Amino acid sequence: MANSKVKIGVLGAGGRMGQAILAAISDDPRLALAGAIERAGHEAVGRRLGPPWPASMSICSNHGPLAIASDVLVDFTAPAALEATLDAACDGKAAIVIGTTGLEPRHHAMIDRAAKSIAVLQAANTSLGVTLLARLVEDAARALGPEWDIEIAELHHRHKVDAPSGTALALGAAAARGRGVDLARVSDRGRDGITGERVPGHIGFGSLRGGSAPGDHLVMFAGEGERIELGHRVESRDIFARGALQAAAWLAGRPAGRYVMDDVLGLPAR
Ligand SMILES: NC(=O)c1ccc[n+]([C@@H]2O[C@H](COP(=O)([O-])OP(=O)(O)OC[C@H]3O[C@@H](n4cnc5c(N)ncnc54)[C@H](OP(=O)(O)O)[C@@H]3O)[C@@H](O)[C@H]2O)c1
């Protein structure tokens, strides 16, 4: 992709992240906007993008032409949209960065299938800081051992629809990897009532919702008489947009396969 701008197609262009991505593309000289779409029937369809984009550019609802026109699609929408989006990306031979959260095993199976024919980078958190935090959490969990209780707390704005956040789960997975256990077998997701004592070795999650917070995460290692806290606070969702676009610029022209944010940062595979 040397000497030419990477053409980005924005999905969910009327949403909070879609808007942040559009603004970040206009600030990045490596990138050009191929187009922007929303789901059919969305109030934003037909709306002009406005400055700095050409007057002819408006939000459309058709995946197919956008995928053909784009080097990389950037998807921050909803899990229900993923299947159609991946089909369009494969047909149009566009790479894709998937930032949508709330994905279930069947969505990951779809991503694995698509990654046989296109380059796909899926990340529950596209911030570079959280990518590094996950490494620190994995190392800490490995070093400290199971007698240190691991609890993960997250705070998000009142509009978020999934819990725990995808980032909290990714941090839990990092901690579980460090301990050599399967997160699905050790996670405690939401305690209420007479729960009994904490189960040794479990990884606990707590979700707070309110206001406009774009996303705070805290991973606590609680030992006897001391605690270690590793955390990350987001001041603006622009960081997710910039990270997603850094990922898109990196992904353009890569061979088919499944990639992660660690690859973008050049962190060694584990
Ligand atoms: N990876 C990261 O770093 C990161 C960071 C922030 C957010 N996220 C995730 O990104 C996603 C979007 O977040 P957001 O805050 O931008 O949400 P949002 O403001 O609700 O935007 C999502 C957009 O996608 C549209 N959409 C919903 N269902 C759809 C469907 N089935 N097909 C096509 N489009 C659909 C929505 O339309 P309607 O308005 O009609 O619902 C909306 O315009 C969420 O999953 C969120 O958790 C990830």
Report on this model:
With 270 residues, the chain is of the alpha/beta class. It folds into 2 domains: 6-126 and 237-265, 3-Layer(aba) Sandwich (Rossmann fold), CATH 3.40.50.720; 128-233, Dihydrodipicolinate Reductase, domain 2. It has 9 helices and 11 strands. The protein has a 6-stranded parallel β-sheet, sandwiched between helices. A 5-stranded mixed β-sheet has the order 7-8-6-9-10. β4 (95-98), α4 and β5 (119-122) form a beta-alpha-beta unit. The radius of gyration is 19 Å and the shape is elongated. The chain starts with 5 loop residues before the first strand and ends in a 5-residue tail after the last helix. The model has no long low-confidence stretch (mean pLDDT 95). The structure holds NADP nicotinamide-adenine-dinucleotide phosphate. Residues 12, 14-18, 38-39, 42, 76-78, 80-81, 99-102, 123-126, 237, 240 line the site of NADP nicotinamide-adenine-dinucleotide phosphate. NADP nicotinamide-adenine-dinucleotide phosphate (NAP) binds at residues 12, 14-18, 38-39, 42, 76-78, 80-81, 99-102, 123-126, 237, 240.
